[in-house]
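Journal club prep — side note

Before the paper discussion, L.F. wants everyone to see what a predicted structure for a comparable chain looks like in token form. Sequence:
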Amino acid sequence: MKKMKNIAIFMALGLCLFMVNASGQSQVSPNPNASSNMNMLVPIIKAQLEALGNPELLKAQAKYFRELYLSLKKQGFTEEQAMQIVVALASSRTTT
């Protein structure tokens, strides 16, 4: 039971990292109009966060990562190795 709780915590952390990194992908280079550029980004970032917070999307992501984790374990990876792979994959998806 304790292992499942730890796995759930790691998966939640991975999903949080995914969401935070995905929302921070829009960057503005410094320029004299930085203030107006930032104001233009606010609705875009809000829309991204709303989309990422969609319960159906979150459920699908959780299911995907859980199935990936279980498949990796079935293929012979340890629990720790499987979790590291899942977290690395979730993190890498935010940089593309």
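L.F.'s comment for the group: The two ends are 35 Å apart (CA to CA). Keep this in mind when we get to the figures.
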